[in-house]
Amino acid sequence: MTSTQADFSYTVYDALKDGTFISVFENTWPMLRGGRPSVATMTLFDAVGEPALVEAYARFAAEGLDNKTTKRRPGRSYIVTIDGHDVCMALDGDLLTMFYADED
């Protein structure tokens, strides 16, 4: 009997489709992020709303962390506090993902 390893890939597009993530800043991508996409977990978005996420993004951008000319190490995240909770802002390529730090 041989064992096989399953190939499983769950992408951000899958998460958008199943409602785990929601696209944010979509109407302002050209202004805020130069057309680059941003997503947040539905849990975070429902709890704080888009205005709080825009404010958190502004702090992230003010640190120069979303500037393409800034050298970033992949997998790095920035923590901001929103309503007393830590929120991660993580870049993977051009995609910005926002989620509660204690979210699985």
Could you explain how this protein is built, in words?
- By secondary structure, the protein is an alpha+beta fold.
- The protein has one domain (12-100).
- The protein is 31% helix and 26% strand.
- It contains three helices and five strands.
- The protein has helices at residues 12-18, 29-32, 42-62; strands at 21-23, 38-41, 77-82, 85-92, 95-100.
- It has a five-stranded mixed β-sheet.
- The protein is globular.
Q: What characteristic shape results from the CA principal axes?
A: globular
Helix content: 25-40%
- Main sheet: strands, sense, barrel: 5 strands, mixed
Low-confidence stretches: none
Strand residue percentage: 25-35%
Strand order of the largest sheet: 1-2-5-4-3
Number of helical regions: 3
Radius of gyration: 15 Å
For the residues shown, what is the average pLDDT? Answer: 82
Order of helices and strands: HEHEHEEE
Distance between the ends:
35 Å
Number of strands: 5
What structural class results from the helix and strand content?
alpha+beta
Number of domains: 1
Note the topology.
Elements (H helix, E strand, L loop, with lengths): L11 H7 L2 E3 L5 H4 L5 E4 H21 L14 E6 L2 E8 L2 E6 L4
Features:
globular, 31% helix, alpha+beta, 104 residues, 26% strand, five-stranded mixed beta sheet
Short description:
This protein is α+β, with helices and mostly antiparallel strands. The chain has one domain (12-100).
